[in-house]
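[job 0412] stage=complex_fold ligand=LNCXM5UN status=START
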Amino acid sequence: MRKLEVSLPEQSYSILIGSGLLAKLPNLLEMQGVQKQDRLFLITDDQVAIHYLEPVRRSLSESGFSIDFAIVPHGEQSKCVATYESLIGKLIEAGCNRKSVILALGGGVIGDLAGFVAATYMRGIRFFQLPTTLLAHDSSVGGKVAINHILGKNIMGAFYQPKGVIYDVDTLQTLSTRELQSGFAEVIKHGLIWDHSFVDWLFQNKEELLSRNSLYLTEAIERACAVKVAVVSQDETEQGIRAILNYGHTIGHAIEGTTSYSAYTHGEAISIGMVGSAWMSEKIHSSSQGLTKMTEELLTHFGLPVKLRTPLSEDKLMDYLRRDKKHTSTGFIFILSPIYGQVRINEHVPEGLIRQALHRIGAC
Ligand SMILES: O=C(O)C(=O)C[C@@H](O)[C@H](O)[C@H](O)COP(=O)(O)O
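[job 0412] stage=complex_fold status=DONE, emitting structure tokens
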């Protein structure tokens, strides 16, 4: 088992990554201070539930924990006010109190949604992230929890850290190919923003990674999480450097939002967003020549899209970009890469350049 520590001013926690961790959940929770009398409430989705709900529920009940659960439909549409409110109702009905603990068993949607429920139920109760997708190496760490508004992604949210992340890599074996590939977008992002040797390693080991070799996946998750931990521990609430974790997300969120979260997975949208960002980087920084081609090659190797499948309106994407959380009254802020393996926060990116980048990725 690999272990990383997230050290934050108010609270620190561990990320445990390894095989067979869900089976050890009762012990791992007790080691993190959860007691048998603390009511557990597990939140998952209908796809994850098929594989993991019963074994997890049974092992916790047989170990003496009392556990209730709720299953929501899979997909980004569940990150909404209606699902949030219904979950709060279920917690009340189950008798959850301030000592109760939420278990977020699933991918990024479940982690964000259950985390937001935990952050707000009775003004905040403990929660653990139990990621079951590759993409969730990113969303489970760092405490960004949120639900979407029809006009914007993650608009209602909080910075609310989990008490721990328990990442059983065996769960990646049941992911669909599309979901696995989607997760690589965020893994690649962590390399592109911080550590070019990690990007090279991903290139070299793509066969092992795509064939779900657990040792290689564990290594990839650990290295990507290490980048995230290094950034978040410097800037928990995104006052500055944490914005670099948004590389590719400005355009990516606009793609997801304008297609009502139905045409692209989060990873696919971020993949296309990173191509747009690489292209703008080349236009602004002469030192990043060749970045777009290299980014496209890497993403394509991992089965990710580098262009919109069907053209989207440039104006609609621009409207969405104006509502991006990084946007200020002084202009568009983009995370761009002056050199392979590093990024900077670029303020005042000209609208004309953004429009050209949108064309480059297939907007019309
Ligand atoms: O942790 C962060 O900070 C990130 O930006 C990571 C992103 O990959 C993640 O998708 C995040 O939820 C996006 O946050 P948002 O503030 O842009 O909504």
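The chain has 14 helices and eleven strands.
[job 0412] exit 0
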